[in-house]
Specification:
- The complex is a heterodimer of chains A (about 900) and B (about 110).
- The two termini of chain A are about 55 Å apart.
- Chain A is an alpha+beta fold and about 900 residues long.
- Chain A is globular and about 110 Å long.
- Helix content of chain A is about 50%, strand content about 15%.
- Chain B is elongated, with a radius of gyration of 16 Å.
- Classes of the chains: A alpha+beta (about 900), B mainly alpha (about 110).
- At the A-B interface, helix 4 of A face helix 2 and helix 3 of B.
């Protein structure tokens, strides 16, 4: 410190002219002050701080802020002496600083004392957390897919990207060609083993007199090297080596042979005998491959000689739809260089093919079950987008519950700020106040977790039964690790919820609060609280409105005029049976009006197509196809624009005629797009030349998310796929029973597979209804949670204004006016939320969702506002009840006690 | 306790504490000393000395009232203890005795 004279030094005049606010706002450097507080003994600290501040202030006045700060810093460093530095033993042990026991005790008291507050938050948190638990369990399940396999890090699937023609978008397929597999085995080094799988082994196994339908996969002997599924019986090395050997899973073995030892037993499919050479332990549920049995791949060539109809040339490079290839890379081989080798291989092979382009790539085992689904998947795959959506929705609900906690904690500050003031007086530091509030919210969150867990257990079953796919893909079993994740979730939720209140309370000035609690600057946080409420309601409204709009769209899809009638039409899958006798029997039933046949049922999303050419051989396009008999069109009441229906022909008679839709003649400009002139023109579908004998008005062959394509109907007396039965609306159950009896007469093994067309359409859009249910469920939760929050807010706000209302009443305000006065603030918030939510939802549907559905219904204003009315109704009811309760209080009682 | 002998600076500080009566806190002591001794007195040194004097039992201290200045921190005021007073008196006595021994003539000649 410099020498100082009592009289003001001459320089003072100059420095006194410095702007006064600079002097006022200037503070000692924070880090230095903190450093001092850190090292100095507590008993010396206060005096020392005071001294330094005094000198700082003096310097500030005389010599400016910079010098003052500099001197302060130097002094702090100079005071670092043996007698000022605290001894290590004097520092608080961390446990005492945290005061965990005290936090827990006080938190318990707070939670039990404020029953309303705790109830609102526990309910909100428990409900939202239960959904989050579900999401965590789902993710956990997906992460543990194929976990039982050894070498799972080194297993890759070879997948194909298929570009049929140069200008068409590529398709990703999980399958690949057999040829690719054999080439990889021969040409690319660095694989330890390779597994071939092939679909389409299914049939009726005959064991002695019994016939049991089973399905399975072909697999080569490398299968057990790549996939370490344990064998209960038989040897992994040889089980799949010999032609016509099968390996059963344990449950299949029981199904076929009961408790007898299946090893060496014979199964007969068609005319071929297969010998059981091994029994696998049942495949874990969380596996991306499932099968009832494995058939040795070497069986195929034998079968192929007798059965040339199977899939064309199996060993062709472009035959990529039924085979799967998995490789087990050697320990030291690099997936990147393997991929490069795959690319070179596909380039060499593609050079030999005219139009198709196929490129191979590696897919790690772990990313099979969770990712973007490809065509021809072999097992359940969860779309990662769906998972993100689900997680996002859960997060929103969770945040909503956190907002409730934050809002209500701050809203009741009137009660709690005094407590914090006293704590601070007694000596609580800022960190300790923060600790206490965080501990409180975390404990509340952990309490909620207990309830959430119970709800989760209930929800789990519901979720799994939501859709067959979910039931197949997930087990959602509990494990210790999962429970740890649950607890972590609760802690994080507690932290998020408690952070803002903790910061808010820790900043409270003890003196001010104890002098006059109402002067507290709670109102500075009111915009934050309002913002949180608006966010909550915006999301609630979006969910609810989305559900309502979606519901109308879904109903619209079901009611949509497809261009033909689907009323009371029963589609029966023939499952390989001859239909002649069956049709004859059915026709005799009293409830059956008409019968027709078709190879597939259209409008459900499945397609059957071929290439078609008209006069120009260079112009070819794919057309959708269906094979039908002469009764099909009248039965479904298709509308003819021109021409006539098919006439009956004997089975096996040469095919010469086709009926097409309007879109097809416009696509090829047949007869210049005029249906009348198109009659009699000849087109080539595949290699078959056919004469157009009729033109139909456009109808929907695909689902409503695809445009109407050019479609051609071809004649077949026995298409063999489905029987379409028009039944009379009266007494449908009796008709069904008699149809079932007829079916039993022709097929004793397979149960009747008959579905009403309308139900099948509903099924085709079931993903839509599942989505609706999920979003609707989330919407319900969001509304409940935000309503709870609002309810609490209203109560706490009213509490603050009881006296004001009393005075207003004394001065003559009537009840209606008061209710309006009290609730208008909340209604304004709701209004703002609606202003955000409704346009967002509308845009979301109009631009994103419905743009994918060319044939959707327009969104109506009414649908947009229904959600708002529901939410506003609930909010109004809650606000109204609470305000009325306050307004009805006798002002004399309210104003009496001060 | 260490020896009760006072160092030169200790004595000065002790004297200042006594002279400031009820307003003897570190910064004031520092200012007072700077003014009278006409030399640069560092706060840190004063602080250390006060601390040492308190350890020796020559002064005692207590915290005062908080005020708006000093960032709301309280001052630590120092008071002489009986021992302190005694040691000051003894120091003065020693000096006085020595002073009296010097013949006035000799002193005049030096200066």
């Amino acid at each position: 410190m410099k020498k100082k004279k009592t009289a003001n030094p001459p320089t003072n005049e100059k420095t006194a002219n410095l702007p006064t606010n600079e002097q006022k706002t200037a503070h000692p450097p924070k880090w230095a002050a903190r450093f001092l507080a850190m090292y100095c003994r507590p008993e010396l600290l206060e005096d020392l701080q005071g001294d330094l501040t005094e000198i700082f202030e003096r310097n500030l006045k005389n010599r400016g802020a910079f010098i003052a700060r500099l001197i302060y810093m130097i002094d702090v460093l100079k005071f670092f002496r043996s007698y000022t530095v605290r001894k290590p033993s004097i520092t608080y042990p961390p446990g005492r600083r945290l005061m965990l026991a005290s936090y827990v005790k006080t938190s318990g008291r707070v939670i039990t004392r404020n029953k309303l507050f705790s109830a609102i938050n526990i309910v909100g948190m428990a409900v939202s957390m239960s959904v989050a638990l579900l999401v965590i369990a789902v993710v956990w399940d997906l992460r543990s897919y194929d976990n039982t396999l050894k070498n799972k890090q080194r297993i890759y699937r070879v997948v194909s990207t298929f570009t049929p023609e140069a200008n068409q978008p590529p398709m990703k397929l999980a399958s690949t060609s057999w040829k690719a597999g054999t080439l990889i085995r021969k040409q690319i080094p660095g694989i330890e083993s390779i597994a071939f799988l092939r679909r389409q082994f299914s049939g009726d196994a005959r064991i002695g007199a019994n016939t049991v339908p089973v399905s399975g996969l072909y697999a080569n002997e490398g299968f057990f090297d790549v996939f370490s599924f344990p064998l209960a019986k038989g040897s992994a090395g040889t089980a799949l080596k010999q032609p016509n050997s099968v390996v059963l899973t344990e449950s299949t073995a029981t199904k076929l042979f009961g408790h007898a030892d299946p090893m060496g037993k014979v199964l007969k499919f068609d005319t071929v005998n297969y010998t059981v050479t091994g029994v696998l332990e049942d495949i874990p549920k969380l596996s991306h491959i499932h099968f009832e049995m494995l058939v040795s791949l070497s069986s195929i060539k034998l079968k192929d000689q007798n059965n040339p109809t199977s899939d064309g040339d199996i060993m062709d490079w472009t035959n990529i739809f039924s085979n799967y290839v998995y490789v087990l890379l050697s320990k030291n081989s690099d997936p990147a260089s393997f991929s490069a080798a795959l690319n070179r291989l596909s380039e060499r092979q593609n050079a030999a093919v005219a139009t198709h382009k196929i490129s191979l790539s590696l897919q790690p085992l772990k990313s099979i079950s969770i990712g973007r689904p490809m065509g021809n998947e072999i097992g359940p795959v969860v779309n990662v987008i769906m998972l993100y959506t689900l997680a996002g929705l859960a997060l929103i609900i969770l945040l909503s519950a956190c907002f409730n906690y934050t809002n209500l904690s701050i809203a009741r500050s009137l009660r709690r700020s005094r407590e914090v003031g006293i704590r601070k007086l007694i000596g609580a530091r800022r960190g300790q106040v923060i600790g206490q509030f965080i501990a409180e919210s975390v404990i509340l969150a952990l309490l909620s977790l207990a309830f959430a867990f119970c709800i989760f257990l209930l929800l789990r079953g519901q979720f799994l039964s939501f859709h067959q796919i979910l039931e197949n893909a997930f087990s959602l079993k509990l494990s210790p690790q999962l429970v740890i994740w649950f607890v972590l979730l609760a802690i994080v939720v507690g932290l998020i919820a408690g952070l803002l209140p903790a910061l808010f309370y820790s900043k409270i000035n003890a003196v001010q609060v104890l002098k006059n609690a109402s002067s507290l600057k709670v109102f500075r946080h009111i915009s934050l609280r309002k913002a949180l409420v608006v966010i909550q309601y915006t999301f609630s409204l979006i969910f609810i409105t989305a559900t309502i709009i979606g519901y109308y769209q879904y109903k619209g899809f079901l009611r949509f005029d497809l261009g033909f009638s689907t009323d009371n039409i029963l589609n029966i899958r023939m499952q390989g049976n001859k239909d002649e006798y069956f049709v004859k029997e059915l026709a005799a039933l009293p409830g059956v009006k008409k019968i027709s046949r078709s190879v597939i049922v259209s409008s459900l999303g499945s397609q059957y197509g071929s290439n078609m050419k008209f006069k120009n051989p260079a112009d070819s396009a794919s057309v959708d196809l269906n094979y039908i008999d002469e009764n099909y069109l009248p039965l479904h009441t298709y509308t003819f624009l021109a021409g006539r229906n098919f006439t009956h022909r004997q089975a096996g008679a040469p095919e010469t005629e086709t009926i097409v839709n309007e879109r097809l003649i416009r696509r090829f400009n047949i007869g210049h797009g005029d249906p009348e002139k198109a009659i009699g023109e000849i087109v080539a579908i595949g290699s078959q030349k056919l004469t157009i004998i009729g033109v139909l008005k456009d109808f929907h062959y695909g689902t409503l998310d695809s445009d109407i394509d050019p479609t051609a109907l071809r004649y077949s007396a026995e298409p063999g796929g489905y029987i379409n039965v028009k039944v009379s609306a009266a007494n449908i159950p009796a008709t069904m029973t008699s149809i079932e009896a007829v079916w039993k007469g022709i097929d004793k093994v397979h149960p009747l597979d008959a579905k009403f067309y309308d139900d099948q359409i509903e099924q085709a859009y079931s993903y839509f209804s599942v989505m609706l249910k999920i979003i609707g469920f989330f919407g319900l939760l969001a509304v409940c949670i935000s309503s709870l929050g609002l309810f609490g807010m209203v109560i706490y706000t009213m509490e603050k204004r009881v006296k004001e209302i009393g005075i207003r009443k004394v001065l003559g305000a009537n009840d209606g006016l008061l209710v309006y006065l009290l609730s208008k603030e909340f209604l304004l918030l709701l209004f703002i939320s609606a202003l955000i939510a409704l346009p967002v939802t509308w845009l979301f549907f109009e631009k994103l969702i419905l743009a994918k559905f060319p044939y959707h219904q327009p969104i109506q204003i009414g649908q947009l506002f229904t959600g708002l009315f529901i939410v506003a109704g609930i909010a109004l009811a809650m606000i109204g009840v609470q305000t009325l309760k306050i307004v009805r209080l006798n002002p004399a009682n309210v104003l009496k006690n001060e | 306790m260490k020896g009760t002998n006072l160092g030169e600076f200790e004595e000065l500080v002790l004297l200042t504490v006594a002279s400031l009566v009820n307003n003897a806190y570190s910064v004031a002591i520092c200012d007072e000393l700077s003014e009278h001794a006409d030399r640069t007195v560092k706060l840190g040194v004063v602080h250390a000395v006060l601390n040492r004097l308190e350890e020796k039992g020559l002064v005692k201290s207590e915290l005062g009232q908080a005020t708006a200045t000093r960032g709301g921190k309280r001052k630590r005021f120092y008071f002489l203890t009986g021992v302190g007073k005694a040691s000051l008196v003894r120091a003065k006595d020693i000096r006085d005795q020595l002073w009296q021994k010097i013949p006035t003539l000799t002193l005049n000649r030096i200066s």
